[in-house]
């Protein structure tokens, strides 16, 4: 089949398959890239489990007493991470879970430091008492 182009010459309407093949490849590649971009990242189950363990460990270290604000922030971040996970927002859930872990680790460290400082103060008080007893006995 032929037709006239604007210059008046006959042009073949049969486009060769060789011309279409690169276009077809580009279309397939673009579709594959679009699907890959739309695919969600895997759920952050390991990050959530680690965050739960970190929060529990901080609670066991008496962070409720010694670092309550840090522990409260960690618990809030963990709850938000779990909600994001339930709503299929894996990237947000992962970020929040990592934040919860970091906050819980901070709360744990501060609680341990406070407990250690308290223990040190108690030992120093004992030493002072013993020194006073030794002076009395002399």
TrEMBL record:
Name the Gene3D superfamilies on file: 1.20.1270.390
Query: Keyword Lipoprotein on this protein?
Result: no
- Which Pfam families does the UniProt entry name for this protein? DUF4398 (PF14346)
Q: Span of the secretion signal?
A: 1-36
Keyword Lipid metabolism among UniProt keywords: no
Alphabetized, the UniProt keywords read:
Signal
InterPro entries with a match to the protein in the record: DUF4398 (IPR025511)
UniProt domain DUF4398: residue ranges: 46-122
Q: What is this protein called?
A: DUF4398 domain-containing protein
């Amino acid at each position: 089949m032929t037709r006239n182009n604007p210059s008046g010459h006959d042009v073949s309407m049969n486009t060769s398959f060789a011309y279409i093949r690169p276009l077809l490849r580009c279309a397939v590649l673009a579709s594959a890239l679009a699907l890959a971009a739309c695919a969600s990242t895997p759920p952050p189950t390991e990050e959530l489990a680690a965050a739960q363990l970190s929060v529990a460990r901080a609670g066991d270290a008496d962070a409720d007493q010694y670092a309550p604000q840090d522990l409260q922030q960690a618990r809030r971040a963990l709850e938000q991470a779990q909600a994001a996970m339930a709503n299929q927002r894996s990237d947000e859930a992962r970020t929040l879970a990592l934040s919860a872990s970091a906050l819980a680790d901070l709360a744990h460290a501060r609680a341990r430091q406070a407990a250690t400082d308290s223990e040190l103060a108690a030992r120093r008080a004992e030493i002072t008492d013993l020194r006073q007893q030794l002076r009395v006995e002399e």
